[in-house]
Design goal:
disordered C terminus; globular; single chain; 2 strands; mainly alpha; two-stranded antiparallel ribbon; 74% helix; 376 residues; 14 helices
Length: 376
């Protein structure tokens, strides 16, 4: 079935804004400017300020949700399900995980390349799978276990590519290794966030835009307040700001004042995350969740190609291999192989059996959540 123009627009919007989100954050890291009190020119290294901007973008999804809801109520037959009432505090724990993981990843992005940053984020399926087995008692399919193993191999290949190409990229090997490890560590926290959301949030039937916006509200509020103590916490040479504190928000604003393009990069990050979340939810609704996963994988390729074109990094063959292996692992874990196997007579029965087993597992988890919601 051919896609409509609207579906093509949504797919393009998701791919474009998803790529811009990482590229704009990396673009901000490439600037240098004078700081406050006549500080000499130095790199713009303010990951926590960038994270605040990202959460502001997520928070805007809450505004979009209420605009859509208001518009929908004027229709003769409303189509938007506002969801049931819930205690907003259920989003507190997932939001804190999101805040911590996002902040760590922005620190890591300043140390490694944008393409490696995006590729290594694929590690999330490893930890999500393991934690869902341990805490949600999910039964993974054999193809999902295989996908996890292949993803681990892909991460090793990407790590090797960073190791062998650090001289060409002009970065210290210690920074690259630290950045890569921070990204993988952040995926553990992201996996905890996903498990918490599935355990405590999804059973309340919350609209996705409202969920993203509420988590953005918590993350924006808490991280904005944390910028105050961060201004006084010394961390030595771990940071590049002149005062060598965990985050110097005043220095960030001074640098933005001296180099307005930094503000453009930060706005690009804020706006793109809002449109990316909206487009992703719309793609799932209008096309399929499978398409959303494919587009999310393709944005890694877009980020890599753009980074090469801009001269932010140099080509390395191992990255191609690593991307291909990670793509295969992600496809297997998310079941993207089943439609292909269903067309093959020798594998059709196995593909149908795995699809039915996956559907039964989802229904079992949903039933468990309904029981817990009823107990609440």
């Amino acid at each position: 079935m051919a896609w409509t123009n609207y579906q093509l627009f949504l797919a393009g919007l998701m791919l474009t804004t998803g790529s811009l989100n990482t590229l704009s954050a990396k673009w901000a890291d490439t600037f240098s400017a004078v700081g406050c009190h006549d500080d000499p020119e130095h790199d713009f290294s303010h990951p926590f300020v960038q994270a605040v901007g990202m959460f502001l973008g997520e928070f805007s999804c809450l505004l979009v949700f209420h605009i859509l809801l208001c518009y929908d109520r004027r229709r003769p037959v409303p189509t938007v399900n506002p969801g049931q009432s819930f205690n907003p505090l259920i989003f507190c724990a997932p939001a804190m995980c999101d805040m911590t993981a996002t902040s760590i990843m922005y620190v890591a992005l300043s140390m490694t390349s944008a393409s490696s940053f995006q590729m290594l984020r694929g590690a999330v399926i490893i930890f999500t799978g393991l934690l869902s087995v341990a805490f949600l008692h999910r039964r993974l399919q054999p193809s999902q276990w295989l996908g996890i193993v292949i993803t681990i191999l892909g991460l090793i290949v990407v790590g090797m590519a960073d190791f062998f190409s650090h001289n060409n990229n002009g970065r210290k090997l210690s920074d690259i290794i630290t950045g890569d490890l921070l990204i993988i560590m952040a995926q553990v926290i992201v996996a905890v966030q996903m498990v918490l959301e599935e355990k405590f949030v999804y059973k309340h039937d919350v609209h996705p835009l409202k969920a993203v916006g509420t988590e953005g509200l918590f993350g924006f509020t808490v991280l904005s307040l944390l910028l105050i103590p961060m201004y006084f916490i010394p961390v030595g040479t771990f940071t590049n700001n002149p005062r060598q504190v965990l985050e110097d928000a005043l220095d960030a604003f001074c640098q933005i004042g001296h180099q307005p393009l930094i503000l453009l990069a930060l706005l690009g990050n804020t706006v793109s995350i809002a449109f990316f979340n909206f487009a992703g939810i719309s793609v799932t609704k209008e096309i399929s969740a499978t398409t959303r996963m494919v587009l999310d994988s393709l944005r890694t390729l877009v980020i890599w190609v753009v980074s090469l074109a801009l001269g932010w990094e140099v080509f390395h063959g191992l990255q191609v291999l690593g991307f291909a292996v990670l793509l295969l692992g992600t496809a297997l874990y998310n079941g993207l192989h089943r439609p292909l196997l269903a067309r093959m007579p020798c594998c059709a029965a196995w593909a149908v059996e795995e699809e039915e087993a996956g559907a039964a597992e989802r229904e079992r988890l949903l039933a468990d959540n309904r029981v817990q919601a009823g107990d609440d």
